[in-house]
Structure to design on (266 residues):
């Protein structure tokens, strides 16, 4: 999909999420774990420390979050230089 | 509505897992085998290479890790309306710009792996069924057929990969010898 469709679709989906959706997604993606990659390109799943988990859960649910909107469509496909962005492998 | 087309794609895994996948297609079920082996890049899903040479590369990498491998081929449905193309810089710019909003909404650490970001976004925006990416392998020796200069050039160090998140993108499965 094109960038404009991605932005519109994602923002629309975000705005439709209720608290139950957020809770379900958090459980599914595993907020307390993440991937790491080794020098050969193999992924490993790691679990964050207890202190990180506690800190991260402090603001777990944000009630009455403002609706998110496309702020500036003109910037959508601006050539933001992403030269430093590389997929690690 | 975007273009739709099929292309060959290749998945590498243990012989046992490849056989399970082949059997599932033979039985008419068709199971998507998801792994964390590549999850750092595009999150959960079944990863496919776009040609047999790249699949053979991954077989060799697995062999170095002491893992035996088989390759299966499939016909992959590319539907441009449901593909998140991380080789498209415009899409990447949008991803980068919107990620902080997604992270805040979900209460997820903004500083996490690309794979976790993709997982989060795909859970929110369920239309995405395939993530396309370009893997870069800096340790891989450049092929002698190509120049090795500072000018724009062809390279064998970058490889196209598809992370498939829905079984309905695959049409059949074949053992590749």
């Amino acid at each position: 999909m094109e960038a404009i469709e991605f932005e519109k679709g994602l923002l629309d989906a975000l705005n439709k999420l209720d608290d139950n959706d957020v809770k379900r997604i958090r459980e599914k993606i595993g907020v307390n774990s993440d991937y790491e990659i080794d020098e050969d390109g193999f992924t490993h799943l790691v679990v964050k420390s207890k202190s990180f988990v506690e800190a991260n859960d402090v603001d777990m649910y944000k009630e009455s979050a403002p609706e998110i909107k496309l702020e500036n469509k003109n910037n959508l496909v601006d050539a933001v230089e992403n030269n430093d962005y590389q997929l690690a492998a | 509505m975007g273009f739709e087309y099929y292309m060959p794609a290749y998945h590498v895994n243990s012989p046992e897992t490849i056989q399970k996948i082949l059997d599932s297609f033979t039985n008419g079920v068709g199971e998507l085998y998801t792994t964390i082996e590549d999850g750092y890049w595009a999150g959960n899903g079944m990863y496919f290479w776009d040609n047999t040479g790249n699949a053979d590369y991954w077989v060799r990498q697995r062999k170095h890790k002491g893992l035996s491998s088989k390759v299966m081929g499939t016909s992959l449905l590319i539907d441009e309306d449901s593909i998140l193309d991380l080789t498209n810089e415009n899409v990447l710019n949008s991803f980068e710009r919107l990620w902080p909003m997604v992270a805040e909404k979900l209460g997820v650490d903004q500083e996490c792996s690309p794979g976790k970001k993709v997982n989060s976004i795909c859970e929110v925006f369920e239309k995405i069924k395939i993530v396309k990416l370009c893997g870069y392998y800096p340790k891989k020796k450049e092929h002698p057929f190509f120049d090795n200069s500072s000018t724009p050039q062809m390279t064998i160090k970058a490889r196209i990969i598809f992370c498939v998140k829905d079984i309905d993108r695959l049409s059949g499965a074949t053992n590749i010898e």
